[in-house]
Task: structure prediction
Amino acid sequence: MLRGPACSDTVEPLAGVSRHFHTVVISYSAEGSSFSDRKKYPYFFRTIGENNQYQQVYLQLLQHLKWAKIGALAEDGHKYSEYLSHMQLVLKKNNITFEFNNKFPPQGNIENIKQYLQEMVQENIRIIIGDVYDDVARTVMCIAYQMGMTAYNSYVWFLPSWLSSDWYDTDKYNKKNNESVECSTEQMVMAINGYFSLSHAPFGPEDSLTHENITVKQWKENFMKSGTNYSTPDKISDYAGYAYDAVWMYAYALRKLYDENSTHLSGLHNENTTKRLVEILKETNFQGVSGTVQFRGRASRISVVHVNQWYFNKSTDKVKSIVGIFEPNNSINNQDPLAGKLKVDDYLIHWLTPDGEIPKDGMIPPPLCLVEGFKNLLGVKDCEIAIVIANVMGFLFIGSILLIVFIRFYQIKKDELEKIKNNNDVLNIANKLDKWEIARVNVVINRKIGEGAFGYVYGGEAFFDGSSRCKNLKNWFYIRRKTRFSQRSRSYETI
Result:
């Protein structure tokens, strides 16, 4: 059994050949995402979380700060930065643009780095992830300073948390390593002031009780008394807790293996014994110095993630402030093991922008939609789709109005016709006159009386089958009534 190594690049060959020797490897600091492949690395474990967890942290942090555009720089061939490709897909699904994932060759020259940074300036990318090692980080941030890409110019940088404490000290490393970074340490302080980093929580809460029945704070005090050179608890290595818990992982697993069958310890490199040991390690669950050590059937531990900001006070001492904590869903077995909840303490963040406000992400706002309010109401993101829906709804509305008007007009006309049909005095005139029709054979026309507005008027005789009435003017009628009757008769003749 092996504990270590520390770096992802050195773990890869060792974890790859371990399956041929049936040897379990537990690393306490290798965070590369590729080691989660159980077919390729069946005997590999780590007490530190994998950087694939950073996907959810970045996603929730960007959403919290309302940033929708981000870029990245990384050295090609480094296992640590492989998570960026996976994260690009996650961000895209959540409508966050990952404009660049530039990987320059190891030991890339200054001109290559300048070119990548210049492209970011042209694309107005202001939120940048730089997954690079110390020497390249000094070069990148020096060029960024020269190009005005610092926090003072409304840029935001995310750099690895595992960079050495004085990695920015170019005055020291230009002399010590014969480097030629064209920035002084003072300029580098200006370049990196206010940068962020993500890291797995190195220790559990100070008052949390470990499996040894002591608190984390007590463990740190005991650790400093054990002959180490650490003067204060905050100087203890961030990987000390992971390494310590890795030893206890082995201890608990071997104890259980021995209890099952004591002969297993004499053949630890036997294939069946190693496979059984792996199964026991997958079930690990105890409260260690670094927090809850639990794998949930995976090669990587699911741990708490810190969002850190690094800034310099007046004495040029670098200070780390934890501005956000990501708590994984350790107790929920049926959900994505990488999922969790990020809590950000905005009041702890130091924004160095000219106005002291949160920097913009460089995203150019889309042209204002003609139906912006309607688009927001529908929850549609494409303006063209909103316009099409608005046109369809408009046509349907106008068509509905026209249909209602037509139906109303038709109903009015129908009602009028009903009234006419019900009016016997008007519509049934023909029926009343039918009984007065005379057969042609019973009519004799013997004179033409005259011509009226409706044609000629003829006089003659008619023969009726039934009796009829005749109005007779009695002699005793008044002269006035006789005169009136004569006038009516003459008027009939003129017609």
The chain is about 40% helix and 20% strand. The chain has a mean pLDDT of 82. Residues 371-422 form one domain.
